[in-house]
Amino acid sequence: MTDLSSTTGATPQTHSGFVAIVGKPNVGKSTLLNAFLNTKVAPTSPRPQTTRRGVRGIFSSDTHQIVFVDTPGLHKPKDALGKYMNQEVHSALADVDAILWVVDLRHPPGEEDQLVARQLRDLPKPLFLVGNKLDVSKYPEEAMKLYGALLEGRTADTQEVMLSAQNNTTAVAMLREQVLDILPENPFFYPRGAASDQTREMWAAEIIREEAMKKLRDELPYAVATRVNRWTEREDGLQRIEGEIVVEKNAHKGMVIGAGGKQLREIGQAARKQLEVFLDRKVFLGLEVIVINGWREDPEALRELGYE
Ligand SMILES: Nc1nc2c(ncn2[C@@H]2O[C@H](COP(=O)(O)OP(=O)(O)OP(=O)(O)O)[C@@H](O)[C@H]2O)c(=O)[nH]1
User: Fold this and answer.
1) C-alpha span between 162 and 101 (Å, rounded)
2) Distances in whole angstroms, Cα of residue 104 to Cα of each of 39, 141, 147, 159
3) Residue 285's beta-bridge partner residues?
4) Higher per-residue pLDDT: 154 or 298
5) 162 and 217 assigned to the same domain
6) How close is the Cα of 202 to the center of ligand 1, in Å?
7) Which of 133, 152, 181 is the last residue of a domain?
8) Whether the predicted model's global pTM rises above the 0.80 cut
9) Which of 18, 47, 7, 8 is nearest to 30 (CA)?
10) Are residues 150 and 87 in the same domain?
11) Which of 85, 90, 106, 221 has its CA 20 to 30 A from that of 113?
C-alpha cells in the first residue's frame, strides 16, 4: 500500500470494500473472521451450520476498511431455514468486491466443495482460496492442489493461501494485508471504531445459540433459535440479559431444559462466561425456553427471529 498523501499534501485516499467469506459448513469461516478482527463477532462451534446469518465484521486501518460478510456454510437445503441460508450466500456473492473461499485441508474436496466451486469459477471478482486447518492436516499441499483444480479455467485474479485460522495470527494478518491491497477506492462504509453491524442483543443471542448447539444432541441443535429480549445495565456495571431459546415442538422443550433444569443451567452458565469475557463485565443471564410451532418452516416466525 502506498500512501501518497505525505508527498502531495492531499487528503489520503480511502479504500474499502465488502469481502465474502464462503465455504462449506465447519471449515472455519467464523474462526477466520474472528481472527481477522481479533475479537468475537461470529459464533463458532464444532457443529456444522452454526452460522445462519451473513454477519458482518469490520476491520479498519487509517486508510482501508474491509467489511467481511461471514456466510452460512453452503449445503443442500432440507427446509426453509436451509434455503434462507443458501440464499444468503448467493446474495453475499453478488454484492461483494472480493471473496475468500475457505476449505478444510484435512480432507480432499467433496460434493459440497464442488457446489461452492461451481458458483465461484465464473465470478469475475478477485478470489482467495484459503486452505485452513494447516495445523492438523497431513497432506496440505496435495489437498490444496485438488481444491485449486476445481477452479481451473477461472480468469479473474485468484490467490492461494494455506494457514491455521485458529493458531496462526501472523499468517492471518498477512492474508488481511493481501485483502486490503485489492480493495477499490471508496469512502468508508462504517465508522472507524465499528467491529460489527450486529446489535449487542443479536450478538449475545448468537453466543447463547452457540452454547446451546454445543450441548444439544442429534437433530435438536438445528431446531433451536435464540433471541435476547431485554438488556439492562445496573449502576454497578452488572449486565442483566434476558434471552429465550426457541424450539419448534413442545416435546423439545424438556429436552433442552434437561432433568431438573440441569442442561439449561449448563447452557446458561457457559454462555454467561463467554459474555463476561467479551464484555469484561459481570453478567446475569436469564434464559427461558419457548415453543414456536414449526418455526423453521414458517416465514413469519423466521422473520420474527431475525432470519430475513
Ligand atoms: N485445528 C483447527 N481447528 C480449527 C481451525 N479453524 C477452525 N477450527 C475448528 O473448526 C470448527 C468449525 O469452525 P467454525 O469457524 O465454526 O466453522 P464455520 O465454517 O464458520 O462453520 P459453519 O458455521 O458451519 O459454516 C471449530 O471447532 C473450530 O474450532 C484451525 O485452523 N485449526
Assistant:
1) 12
2) 22, 12, 10, 16
3) 241
4) 154
5) no
6) 21
7) 181
8) no
9) 47
10) yes
11) 221
Query: pLDDT for 218-277, tens place per residue?
Result: 767 778 899 999 999 999 989 999 999 999 989 899 999 999 999 999 999 999 987 887
Ligand 1 centroid–CA 187 distance in Å is 32
Q: Are 95 and 46 in contact (CB under 8 A)?
A: no
56/163 same-domain check:
yes
Q: How far apart are CA 117 and CA 147, in angstroms?
A: 9
Same domain, 157 and 205: no
* Pairing label, strands 225-233, 239-247: antiparallel
List, chain by chain if needed, residues with CB within 6 Å of any ligand 1 atom. 23, 25-31, 44-46, 48-51, 72-73, 132-133, 135-136, 164-167
Do 89 and 224 belong to one domain? no
Which residue is closest in CA terms to ligand 1's atom 13? Answer: 28
Residues annotated in a binding site for GTP: 23-30, 70-74, 132-135
In this structure, which residue's CA is closest to atom 10 in ligand 1? 28
Written as nine digits, the cell of 10 is 492531499
* Contact predicate 27/103, CB 8 Å: yes
Looking at this predicted complex, what is its ipTM?
A: 0.97
Return the CATH number at 43.
Answer: 3.40.50.300
Could you list the residue range(s) of the whole structural domain that residue 266 is in? 200-304
